[in-house]
Write a structure and sequence with these properties.
45% helix, single chain, 3-stranded parallel beta sheet, alpha/beta, 163 residues, globular, 3 strands
C-alpha cells in the first residue's frame, strides 16, 4: 500500500518511474512487479545468473494470470567482458535461448568504474566531470528501453537525459 501511494504521488509529476529493486523475486520486488507495467532484468554474463531468468519468466507469467499488467520488456546483459572467452561463452547462452525481441542489443561491460561509483555512492555519470566514457552506455540503454516501451511512435514517451 505504501508503494502504491508513493507511485501515485510520483506519477503526478513524472512520465516514467524506474524502480531498482533488490535481487530476488520476493518481497518488494514482487510487489513492484505486480504494480508495474514493464520489467527490465539485468543478468550478469556469469553462469549462475542465467538460472534466475527462468524464475523471472515464471513470476511474470504468474502475475499476469493474477491480472497484473506486467510484461517482461527486456533482458540486459551486464558485466560482459568481450575479451574473455568465458564471459562471451556465457553470453552466447541467452543469445541463443531467448527470443531476440527480449534481449537488449546493448550490453553493459564489466568496468572498474562501476565499482568505484558504487563505493562512492553515486551514479557513474556523477562520479567525476567529465563523466567516465562508459557512462554513455546508460543513455543507450535508456533509448532502447523507451523504444521498447513506446514502439512505432505510440506516444513520444519520456526522453532520455543526454548531456
Amino acid at each position: 500500500a505504501r508503494f502504491d501511494r508513493l507511485a501515485r504521488e510520483a506519477s503526478a509529476d513524472h512520465d516514467l518511474l524506474v524502480i531498482d529493486t533488490p535481487a530476488g523475486l520476493g518481497g518488494i520486488t514482487a510487489g513492484v512487479m505486480r504494480a508495474g507495467g514493464h520489467v527490465l532484468t539485468p543478468i550478469q554474463a556469469e553462469p549462475i545468473a542465467l538460472r534466475s531468468v527462468a524464475h523471472l519468466v515464471e513470476m511474470v507469467s504468474a502475475l499476469r494470470e493474477e491480472g497484473a499488467r506486467v510484461e517482461l520488456t527486456g533482458i540486459l546483459l551486464t558485466m560482459l567482458q568481450m575479451r574473455d572467452t568465458n564471459s562471451v561463452a556465457v553470453a552466447q547462452e541467452p543469445w541463443s535461448m531467448f527470443p531476440k525481441r527480449l534481449l537488449f542489443e546493448t550490453s553493459v561491460p564489466r568496468d572498474p568504474v562501476f565499482l568505484e561509483a558504487t563505493a562512492a555512492g553515486v551514479p557513474v555519470p556523477l562520479l567525476r566531470s567529465p563523466p567516465p566514457p562508459v557512462s554513455h552506455v546508460f543513455d543507450v540503454v535508456t533509448g532502447e528501453l523507451i523504444h521498447r516501451m513506446y514502439p512505432k511512435g505510440e506516444g513520444r514517451g519520456p526522453q532520455p537525459f543526454l548531456d
